[in-house]
Amino acid sequence: MPDPDYLIRLASQIDATLDSGLTGIDVSYGDTSYEAILSRNKVTLAPSAYELDTLDWIFCCLTGVSGGVLDLTRTIDAKLTNEELHQKFDKLSSDYLKKVTGTDGKAAIDNIRGGQLHRIVGPTHDLSRFFEAVKDIMKGEFHANVHGTNFIETFHSSTSKSPYVQIHSPVDAAIVLLLHMIGDFFSKMSLPIPGRSKLAESESKEIVKEVFAEYRNGGNLRKLVSEFLSNVSGTILIALVLRLYRYMRLAIERRSIPGLSLKDDAKFHVLDRNAQTISFVISAGKSAFTSNPLALNYTGFVQIVRSGAAINRISTGEQALLNNKLEALDARIRSL
């Protein structure tokens, strides 16, 4: 079954042929389908709104590849790694702690055992456990419960022997923690991905080992944010370039300035869907090659789904228009 756009154009072309005043249009013998009527009377059908021409494909492919290549760059991650900012925010946190406690003590954020992977132990570097961490900081306690790994065992610092100071105000505790976390975000190891510290407390040795291995190999919040920003920048680049291209094509075809909205322009959505798909395939290759699921262009995938939904919406609207148009056209042809 031809798509609604095709049949609408078919019906419109027959209407135009009849309206042109031509007499003797041949509908009396043989195949009486609309296509056959146009063929016998040498009437040419206008191009489909969904069909891409050579220039469309060139822009579509180049834009999709450009978006994919932009997603491959490591520029954003490199710029977000800043040891100077790490130290500045760490000092701001320490200074604020001294201001609210009146001592040079230490907040219950970094556990006393330290270590390269200390941030994945306990709630104090996990954004998803922020309020849990604030409660511990207020009490001057650090809690961690990690099983199945040689890195650290169950650890609890009690108030009687705690090396940490207490902070009585939840707001002050939250500010101290937030400044510390912002600084750690810019460090080389950054913060763990939200929720990972909870997984590190699993009773399963395999899960714990996987979580620590992921963090050790660069699976952190800064990398997640940089991948997201890379994905978004590629997705936005594709949408902007194709929107500009479509405006130019419409202006040339209509010899007038088109409206700003392309919401109901089927060809724009087809271009966007195809280009985003190319970019997504490139990111999938990157994800498979690096064994990093964070590298997958999830924003591009969302845009593919959105464009597909827009095409379906336009097609559904055309189907309703088609039903009315074909009924009227059928009656008109039969009356000849």
Would you give an account of this structure?
This protein has 2 domains: 43-75 and 224-326, no CATH class; 82-189, no CATH class. Helices cover 61% and strands 1% of the residues. The chain has 12 helices and 2 strands; from the N terminus they run H-H-H-H-H-H-E-E-H-H-H-H-H-H. It has helices at 4-19, 34-40, 54-72, 75-80, 83-101, 130-139, 170-185, 196-199, 205-216, 221-254, 266-290, 298-334, and strands spanning 143-144, 155-156. The chain has a two-stranded antiparallel sheet with strand order 1-2. The radius of gyration is 31 Å and the shape is elongated.
Order of SSEs, N→C? HHHHHHEEHHHHHH
Q: What structural class is derived from the secondary structure elements? A: mainly alpha
DSSP strand content? under 5%
Kindly state the percentage of residues in helix.
55-70%
Low-confidence stretches: 21-32, 148-154
Largest sheet composition: 2 strands, antiparallel
How does the overall form come out from the CA principal axes?
Answer: elongated
Question: What do the pLDDT scores average to?
Answer: 78
**Using only CA atoms, what is the Rg?**
31 Å
Q: Counting H and I runs of at least 4 residues, what is the number of helices?
A: 12
Strand order of the largest sheet: 1-2
Distance between the termini: 26 Å
Total beta-strand segments: 2
Number of domains: 2
